[in-house]
Specification:
This protein has 295 residues and is of the alpha/beta class. The protein has 5 helices and 8 strands, in the order ββββαβαβββααα.
Length: 295
């Protein structure tokens, strides 16, 4: 299997994630479970789910972990259909554009499209809270990403939608005739097998062509609830999970791995805690896409 050209850890000597088989694609980003020696491994990518599939990666989370990653970039047929196109007469940004931090670079934007800053990114939450404060921590990190990107992330309530390895981005019977909201699920590996082995999270975005314009339209954030409940018991557990969430949300917004260990989007968690300058430039770029008058 050929390595993804964007993944600079592709030649590392450890575990490889295989590309998904043909058919409806699976979520692609993985944050990994704690190893018994205290190392937590991450996994990464931009979700595959609606019309276009983007890069798949694995990543290490922990001060000593190494890994190898295989990647692929595919275009798939629309999965789950698409809603009817509607128009806005005068689309406008919901939040002000975020000025980029002075300087350049420090981030990788891997998605083939960006979210529409004139429409909210709605998200719903499924599953039982894995530890006291999990939902609050999630909301805090989503709010931070929203403020740093200028993309409005809006809580749209609870859902009973199950976390599935492949998720349709259009579910009119459940969510009406609009793109399905981002599904945040506290789940486990019995429901999502890719949460087995070292992965504790999967996440990313789905892209679709809307009236000839490519956009990110839906996505997922899946977290292994039993493993998070164990991490929460550590003295540094909340800090670790905050970094995990910030990292995965970065992928949801289109960001990929970088080589600077000071950045949250670095493939190993070395205690970054907060978005750094490269991450902030990437988030500003993610939120500076064009408004569309088409839904």
């Amino acid at each position: 299997m050929s390595a993804d050209p964007h993944d600079f850890f592709a030649s590392a000597p450890a575990r490889t994630l295989e590309a998904p088989p043909p058919g409806p694609p699976a979520p692609a980003d993985a944050r990994a479970k704690p190893r018994r020696r205290g190392v937590v491994v991450l996994g990464v990518a931009v979700l595959l789910s609606a019309v276009a599939a983007v890069n798949i990666h694995a990543m290490g989370h922990g001060s000593t972990s190494t890994f190898s990653a295989g990647g692929t970039s595919n275009t798939t047929r629309a999965f789950g259909g698409s809603p009817p196109v509607t128009t806005l007469s005068h689309p406008h940004r919901l939040l002000p554009a975020v000025p980029a931090v002075a300087g350049s670079g420090g981030y990788v934007f891997e998605a083939d499209a960006r979210w529409d800053p004139c429409r909210p990114i709605r998200y719903v939450i499924a599953g039982a809270e894995p530890f006291d404060g999990a939902n609050a921590l999630l909301t805090q990190t989503l709010d931070e990403a929203s403020a740093r990107s200028g993309l409005q992330l809006v809580y749209a309530g609870r859902t009973n939608e199950p976390a599935l390895p492949s998720r349709a981005s259009y579910q009119p019977d459940r969510y009406g005739k609009t793109w399905a909201p981002v599904l945040v699920a506290w789940t486990d590996q019995s429901a999502v097998p890719r949460l087995g082995a070292n992965a504790i999270g999967l996440g990313g975005a789905a892209s679709a062509s809307v009236h000839g314009q490519q956009r990110l339209v839906s996505g997922v954030l899946y977290f292994d609830a039993p493993e998070l409940s164990l991490i929460a018991q550590r003295p540094t557990g909340f800090a670790e999970m905050r970094t995990v969430m910030l990292h995965e949300i970065g992928h949801l917004l289109g960001l990929g791995h970088v080589q600077d260990p000071a950045e949250v989007m670095y493939p190993t968690d070395v205690g970054q805690a907060d978005y750094n300058t490269g991450d902030l430039r990437g988030l500003a770029y993610a939120g500076s896409g064009p408004c569309s008058k088409y839904s």
